[in-house]
Amino acid sequence: MAMTLFRALVSLAGLTHREAAAYLGVSVDAVKSWSCGRNACRPEILHEMIALVLRQERAAITLRVDPLHPPQTDEAAQAFGWPCLGAWWAAAARALAYGLEGRNAQI
Total structural domains in the chain? Predict the structure, then answer.
């Protein structure tokens, strides 16, 4: 399967096709079509995905996610303002990576 910008953003955001479709308000078939490059993704959809990835980055840098106390369901992640559990975990993984990077820099 060819890599597309849309597919890379969905992956980076930690979303499944189903979660991306729900977040973007489109069909799973549309997400699959954009992911494989069969159809071009609309610019506003790319902007929406970029905004989510940037939000995850900001949350990770400012430690607004706690990898030690994760939500257990999509609904719990949504209560924290994330579209799904996968998006929360993507931000938490970045927070953990940034924390380890800072600790290694001090050693």
Answer: 1
The per-residue pLDDT of the chain, averaged, comes to 89
pTM above 0.70, yes or no: yes
Contact call for residues 33 and 45 (beta carbons, < 8 A): no
What is the span of the domain harbouring residue 70? Answer: 5-106
Residue type, 9: L
How far does Cα 58 stand from its chain's mean position? 12
C-alpha 101/C-alpha 88 separation (Å) is 20
Q: Measured between alpha carbons, how far is residue 36 from residues 16, 20, 39, 91 in Å?
A: 14, 14, 8, 25
Q: For residues 65 and 91, what is the distance between their CA atoms, to the nearest angstrom?
A: 7
Inter-residue contact 83 to 7 (CB < 8 Å): no
Q: For the chain, how big is the Rg over CA atoms in Å?
A: 15
In the chain, the amino acid numbered 34 is W
Whose tokens are 């999509």? That residue is 74
CB 45 within 8 A of CB 24: yes
